[in-house]
Amino acid sequence: MKPSLAVILSALALALPACQREAPVADTATAPAVAAPAPGDTPVVATETTMAQAGVQPGPGAIDSKAFAGKFNGSLPCADCPGIDETLELAADGSFTLTDVYRERPQGTSTLQGTWSADADGKQIRLDPGSKAERDRLYAIEDNDTLSPLGADGERVEGAPDMRLKRGK
């Protein structure tokens, strides 16, 4: 007696799942804490919150984002105006507002909003406007009261005048 097609298909449906390999279980003691981003992906900057969610201890020099929040002010150079008065407000909830006032320009005020995060070693912060039209901005953390804007490559701008934002009111 030959088995029917329905019986054969049922047997295959039951047998195939048993043949699949199980994914290996990562050893948390030796596995990396955070996977490296794929080429072309924007890396996610670890903060105290994201690291805690992943069960990772912050590295030496990590900052407490809530305690670091505040308002920073400074004057930056401008290629075609007398200068830019910049105010950066970092909120404890991880949001930011960056206001640039271009001196001697009618309607010379621009405002950018989004989220901010600190890197794991507490050396810089990233402003993410959450828009493809605007690029992320990086600032070096000089000390608890001083930030310095960085270039898109994360490096200090060579030959630029002293550009610093100081904690203010």
TrEMBL record:
Pfam families linked to this entry: NlpE
UniProt entry keywords in alphabetical sequence: Signal
InterPro entries: Cu-R_lipoprotein_NlpE
Signal sequence bounds: 1-20
Superkingdom to which the source organism belongs: Bacteria
Region annotated Disordered, chain positions: 122-169
Compositionally biased intervals (Basic and acidic residues): 122-140, 153-169
UniProt name for this protein: Copper resistance protein NlpE
